[in-house]
Design a protein that fits this description.
Layout (H helix, E strand, L loop, with lengths): L1 H25 L3 H5 L9 E6 L4 H4 L2 H8 L4 E6 L9 H14 L7 E3 L15 H14 L4 E5 L3 H4 L1 H14 L8 E5 L4 H4 L6 H9 L6 E5 L3 H9 L7 H9 L5 E6 L2
Parallel strand pairs: 1-2, 1-4, 2-3, 4-5
Antiparallel strand pairs: 5-7, 6-7
Helix pairs in contact: 5-11, 6-8
Protein name: N-acetylglucosaminylphosphatidylinositol deacetylase
Family: Belongs to the PIGL family.
GO molecular function: N-acetylglucosaminylphosphatidylinositol deacetylase activity
Length: 258
């Protein structure tokens, strides 16, 4: 009987959370919940990721939010994800996913640098990363960069190195005008709580200092699933489960990097 109560409670929470996301995406009340005070509106934004599918698996709520507010979106992917020898395939999949996420293909750049190869245990040099990101910032007149935090959501070393590369860029006094935000990593319990995590994320953002953290509910969760499905080489059963149960499909909390 106790297990039945727990299961029913979880189902009710799951349904209520999905309803909350749907309600905010369809109603004017989203202005109150998602309002960023104009911080992210109509900016030249560069999302910096490590591998093809990072953008769909982790950052889709942010990309959906920004595209709907007129931001000029760019994606810089620092490797082809060639750990299994499928780099060329994965690169093309990212272009298809970007179409679904409303990011122009011409504004998606995928690198295949010999010193930035995909894989656990393969460390990426922060100075090299900073140099590459700086070139993209200058060439595309970027004024806002978004990337992983120090843990990198999954703890992947490449994600963590990308974060350090962005931090290295910010240390360059000539680029103080560039604003950078990181995707906040959560505990494993929250990470696999699906849409239920929206309540904790909203609460967390509310109690941070104003302007330091923003929480974005996914206004187009079906679009996120469709984008991830474009990564056909990665769209195996356990990633389908991950995307369905991952809180990062439903909500992103971004924290300003100082």
């Amino acid at each position: 009987m106790e297990w039945l109560v727990i299961i029913v409670t979880l189902v009710v929470l799951w349904v209520a959370s999905l309803f909350k996301i749907l309600h905010e995406s369809l109603s004017a009340s989203q202005v109150e919940v998602l309002n960023d005070g104009g911080v992210f509106s109509k900016r030249n934004v560069l999302l910096v990721v490590a591998h093809p599918d990072d953008e769909s698996m982790f950052f889709s709520p942010t990309l959906n939010y920004l595209s709907s507010r007129g931001c000029n979106l760019h994606i810089l992917c620092l490797s082809t994800g060639n750990a299994d020898g499928m780099g060329n395939v994965r690169k093309e999949e990212l272009y298809f996913a970007s179409i679904v996420l409303k990011v122009p293909q011409k504004q998606v750049k995928v690198l295949d640098h010999p010193d930035l190869q995909d894989g656990f245990g393969k460390s990426w040099n922060s100075k090299l990363l900073s140099k590459i990101i700086k070139e993209e910032v200058v060439n595309c007149a970027i004024d806002l960069v978004i990337t992983f935090d120090n843990y990198g959501v999954s703890g992947h070393c490449n994600h963590q190195d990308v974060h350090q590369g962005v931090r290295k860029l910010l240390q360059d006094t000539s680029h103080k005008e560039v604003e950078a935000w990181e995707l906040v990593s959560t505990s494993i319990l929250r990470k696999y709580s699906g849409p239920v995590d929206i309540w904790l994320s909203l609460l967390s953002a509310k109690f941070h200092l104003s302007g330091v953290m923003h929480c974005f509910l996914n206004e187009h969760p079906r679009r996120s699933l469709a984008a991830m499905a474009q990564h056909r080489s990665q769209w195996v059963w356990f990633r389908k489960l991950f995307v369905s149960f991952s809180s990062y499909t439903y909500v992103n909390c971004l924290r300003k990097i100082n």
